[in-house]
Each structure stands twice: as C-alpha cells, then as structure tokens.
Amino acid sequence: MNVTEKALDSGWVVLSVLGRVDAQSAPALEERCQQVADRASRLALDMSQVHYISSAGLRVLFASLKNFRSRGGDMALVAPQASVSKILEIAGFNSVFKIVNSDSELK
Asked: What angle do CA 8, 87, 29 make, to 5 degrees?
C-alpha cells in the first residue's frame, strides 16, 4: 500500500491510497490518518485505487472517523471501487461516511 497526500483549498486533506488495505497495511494507514488529525480537521481518503479492504481496514476507517468527529472535524471517502464500495455497503459504512465521487465535491 502506498499513500500520497494533498491539501485542498476547501480545507480538506486528501490521502490517496493505492493497493490493498489489509491487516498488514492497516496500521500504516491508521498512523497517516492520525498524523493528519493532529494538524487538520477534515480528512478525505481517496479510495479509487484500493482494490481490497479487510476487516482490519474497515476498523481503521471507523476509528479514524470517530477520531475526527470527536475533535469537531469530519472524514469522507472518495470514489471507492465497486468491490470496495460493496464491502462498505455491507458493513453499513455508506450510512455513516460521506462518500463522494471526486474530491472536487468536498466543500
């Protein structure tokens, strides 16, 4: 898994995730999310290049969402692939997370 970062003029920080989010890579993603939480209030994870997410990855997403919201911030998921989107739906995350098709939709 690789992660790159960019800041948007809207105040969102976007972490673009590439590869699998599984038990092996989830701790690194959690650390990156925490680093963003320490300096920003809104995080978007660009999931367009994530082709697999495990329960460990789902745990990181939910823990990070709780962390941002407990600080008065927010978190969004951007453009998850169909296979990941289905897992998010089964887990009920589509009713908890803001999910957008493009980071240009983040306001």
From this structure: 45
pLDDT in tens, 14-61: 999 999 999 999 999 999 999 999 999 999 999 999 999 999 999 999
Question: How many angstroms separate the CA atoms of 2 and 38, rounded?
Answer: 20
Smallest CA-to-CA distance from 67 within 92, 49, 42 is with 42
Whether this model's pTM surpasses 0.90: yes
In our burial notation (b when 16+ CB lie closer than 10 A, e otherwise), range 36-47 reads bbeeeebbbbbb
Count: domains in the chain? 1
Strand partners, 74: 42
What range defines the domain where residue 15 resides?
2-105
Alpha helices in the chain (DSSP H): 26-37, 55-70, 82-90
